[in-house]
Protein: Transmembrane protein 138
Organism: Pelagomonas calceolata
Amino acid sequence: MDTLSSTEDQAPPRKKRDDDHHRTNEGKTIILFGLLLTDLVFNSTLEYDEWDSYPTMFGIQVFIEICTFAVVFLMLCETYPFRVGLLDALLAEFRSIFWVHPLYVCWSLLVGIYRIFLGRQVSKYSGAGFRRLPNMWDTSDPAGETYTYLSHTHKLLAAIYYFINIRAAVRLGDGVYYAREQWVKLYHRTGGSRHELRKLLTKRHDEFEDDVGVERER
């Protein structure tokens, strides 16, 4: 009787802790969307408007991208599987986060460094003239042609980057990642198989996103 009573007493605090982690991630989601929106603004202006302080603005953009990864990582830290060390199961669902962020940051650095330093070394425009519009888009210039390819690839990669981050934020809105009982139930149903667990989670996410869509329509 004492053991049963003790278990019942512990259940509400545990649920409260799970809810606290869930609410904390909701706040981080707002921050994440703000950072992604800021990065989108930079991508829409830095290469198409005249910026005398482009190196500074470029540095700020890279800093924002690093902060974005930090926020997503902290969101993952709030989940139950991360807190108890079930990292394999968690990474099976969010592995794309860990390749898209380094790739996007590195490509952003490549585009910025090429515009600031490398491009003008092979450009027909003297000095910092390559950085001026429309010189850096001049495909008759070897530097301009290379920069155009780099920039277009960067924009395509940015679309993938935004999609993966937004999808991760939406999926982390599912309470299964914070409730011990639900996660343990899923884990036992799959026998710990990462492949089967991912299939179950994908099915659950599809249902969860459909429910969110229905609620918004109401």
